[in-house]
Amino acid sequence: MDRIDFRSDTVSWPTPAMRHAMANAPVGDDVYGEDPTVNKLEALAAEMVGKEAGLFVASGTMGNLTAILAHGRRGDGAIVGEDSHTFRAEAGGMAVLGGIVPNPLPTDVYGRMDLAAVQNAIYPDDPHFPNNRLILVENSYGAKGGYPIEPAYFQQIRQIADKNGMIVHMDGARIFNAAVALNLDPRELTQHVDSVTFCLSKGLCAPMGSVLCGTAEFIAQARRARKLVGGAMRQAGVMAAAGIVALTEMVERLADDHAHAKTLANGLAQIPGLIVQPELVKTNMFFFALDEAAPVTPAEFVQRLRDEANIWLSGGYSRTFRAVTHYWIQEADVALFVQTARAILQ
Ligand code: TLP
């Protein structure tokens, strides 16, 4: 890459192996179900998360939206973390396009909703209220620095859902980061949910795309929802080919990104003027803050990192920043970040 970009793992470029696979992918018209590369990706994805079928979609947002459209109807309610991506950062799609009524609940430091609060958020059977239909969960939890949540939490969510005839969808945009961090098979994290979306284009480096997985019956409905939102693609095998490389070659190495994030957090924690909690860093991202007493403003901090070391960091409008590691960030880049931040803040 032409810069050292810690803004997100979404900025990661496709790998040389992906570009090769894309150039050589067998393709067909996927709306006819005739793209062999898309079909292969969908089967592989479903198998890796222990579901019957998969659906290749353009983005994580589209995966969550098509899942919600396929699971719910107008007037259905969705219990959801108030700082979850699906509620906070998908342009209100569930409400705007689905007529789904979100019921946002606070989450703890790891991104978990309180189970008693989830139970209490179930509406009585009364025409005043939306239907109890969906519980939306996320893993790893982006707003909590990519914290990987253990399967036991989802098992308890499942129990509440079953008791109330509800469906659980997981935004597993970074489910493989969570699985690698917890040293678990991803299926252990997805076994308690009805459907899961995960992204190929974040730490796994594909240029675009996510896969929504669930039962074959659900995926048939989701295929219709994907068409409805204009997301049915044609020779999408060119993109799916990169996704296959992502799933076969890029999962295990996520551990390197996690190690880099930890090293970075530990390094920044030593610098006076920065507030970091390295003990919370388990995957490839974390939040840290600039102390009120620091000699630069947040905007100056971001600008100087960029000017002095070509290090890109998002934010600058508040005292909190997010640093994200990925395939294109090396150990030397982490060391340069720490060194430059120390020089700026001295
Ligand atoms: N996350 C992006 C931004 O939108 C914040 C990022 O830089 O992290 N779920 C989660 C947990 C996500 O973090 C994201 C994207 C999505 C869904 C949506 O994926 P895309 O961007 O492919 O629609």
Architecture blueprint of SSEs:
Blueprint: E1 4-5, H1 16-23, H2 36-48, E2 53-57, H3 60-71, E3 76-81, H4 85-88, H5 93-96, E4 101-105, H6 115-120, E5 131-138, H7 151-163, E6 167-171, H8 175-182, H9 186-190, E7 195-199, E8 210-214, H10 216-228, H11 237-249, H12 254-269, E9 274-276, E10 285-290, H13 298-309, E11 311-312, E12 320-324, H14 331-345
Summarize it.
This protein has 346 residues and is an alpha/beta fold.
- Determine the CATH superfamily of the largest domain: Type I PLP-dependent aspartate aminotransferase-like (Major domain)
At CATH level 2, the architecture of the largest domain is: 3-Layer(aba) Sandwich
Number of domains: 2
Number of helices: 14
- Radius of gyration, CA atoms, in whole angstroms: 21 Å
What is the helix/strand order?
EHHEHEHHEHEHEHHEEHHHEEHEEH
The order of strands across the largest sheet is 2-8-7-6-5-3-4
Relevant terms:
346 residues; alpha/beta; Aspartate Aminotransferase, domain 2; Aspartate Aminotransferase, domain 1; 2 domains; seven-stranded mixed beta sheet; three-stranded antiparallel beta sheet; 14 helices; 12 strands; 41% helix; globular; binds ligand TLP
